[in-house]
Amino acid sequence: MNTQTLNTPLPAAAPAAEGSGAAAPTACVYSIGKRLSLLLALQTIIGLGVLLASIYFATFMLFKSKQEEHLRGYAAVLVDVLKTADAEGGERAMANKLAWLGERQPGTFVQMLRADGTELYRDPSPTFDPQRAPSRELRFAVPRAGGGEPLQGRVVLDCTSDAQHGRRMALLLIGATLAGGAFVAWATFWRVRCSLRPLADLAAQTRAIDASRPNQRLSLPVPIEELQPLIEQFNGLMQRVERTYVQLEGFNADVAHELRTPLANLIGHTEVALSRERSVAELEEVLLSNLEELQRMAGIVNDMLFLAQADRGVKARRGAPVSLAELVRQVVEFHEAPMEEAGLGMDIEGDAMLSVDEPLLKRALSNLLGNAIRYADPGSRLCVRILREGDHGARLWVENTGPEIEAAHLPRLFDRFFRSDASRCELEKPHHGLGLSIVAAIARMHDGAAAAESGGGRTRVGFSVTAPA
């Protein structure tokens, strides 16, 4: 369905931004499996480290408590023994008792000092060096039997064995922490690789999709909840791409078909004209016929260029608010001759003041009126309805009485080169099937949409426009 169109320039597209000349930085590629493995290994090391450090600290406190208890017990024994020895024989008896106890307590060192600081007793040959070896010391006082100044003593406990056990335990805990982190890293990496195997399958399926198999879709043997939305979105995208690809192939075929007819006519007329000598009048008639075909081809090419630019997202230029009813009257005047020839009347209902691109809107209305005139019953009346939609929008309908359009054809009515049936492609009503596609493009450029309805012997086709707030 098409009609003659008003020659209207398309708004120029915005110039593309110039590149800076510098290459875009390449994003750093990383492995999800390796990153998760390292992160979980680090968390494991930190968690185990804190736990095992707490265990080591608790063990250290147990060792310390045991050593202090041992020192307090041994010091209490020394005090009791020295008090008894002092009552029985004085300092000599105390020294003998200390020497006797020192032989039976290896791993300890005892030293006793008088009140004036002189040494009363010192273990002669301790089994460890009290100054260098790990040890713990406890000082105590021993009261004298005669009431004199008490003796001052100190006992040192050898902690070498406990220190060695502590070092071994620390090394064991550190080794366990590192081993636990390494095991978690390996197990996580293996598990992540197994879990990401469906992604590798999807990548392989994606690589297999090409132009020869646009109908191929992604799928998994076992659906995965996290991947299913991605698969559905991708399959939906592929479905749209396939539909666009099919439409593009059909569009190319239709373009070739539409251009082939005028080209064949041009070639045929030219060959006939050159087959024998012609008069000036005959050659002029051939040139006029060729000019008509060339104008038809130019119209097809111009319409295709318009649609191509509109598909790139060009928006309509907005002017001052104008009366849509006044624009309709101007377009109706342009179509007065064909309307009078068909005996058609015209009604204009409603109005709206909107900021629109006047030349583009006139072009869309001209296409709709041309279609309505072409298929309206002779002697009937056409109607252009202007309905207000909100504060910044309006919808324009062009109605005519005539053959109905099948419901199955309505969704495709605005496709390029679409013709619903042979009855709408008569030779006496030539058109190339881009008029309604241009209407839909102009509606999109005004942030609107085209629509069509047919029933009860009436057909109405129109579009909506939205003005900036």
TrEMBL record:
Alphabetical list of InterPro entries matching this protein: CztS_silS_copS (IPR006290), HAMP_dom (IPR003660), HATPase_C_sf (IPR036890), HATPase_dom (IPR003594), His_kinase_dom (IPR005467), HisK_dim/P_dom (IPR003661), HisK_dim/P_sf (IPR036097), TCS_sensor_his_kinase (IPR050428)
Source organism superkingdom: Bacteria
Function according to Swiss-Prot or TrEMBL: Member of a two-component regulatory system.
Transmembrane parts of this sequence: 40-63, 170-190
PROSITE patterns reported for this sequence: HAMP, HIS_KIN
Any Pfam family matching the protein: HATPase_c
Domain HAMP: 196-246
Main location: membrane
Species this protein is from: Hydrogenophaga crocea
Organism classification: Bacteria, Pseudomonadati, Pseudomonadota, Betaproteobacteria, Burkholderiales
Protein name: Sensor protein
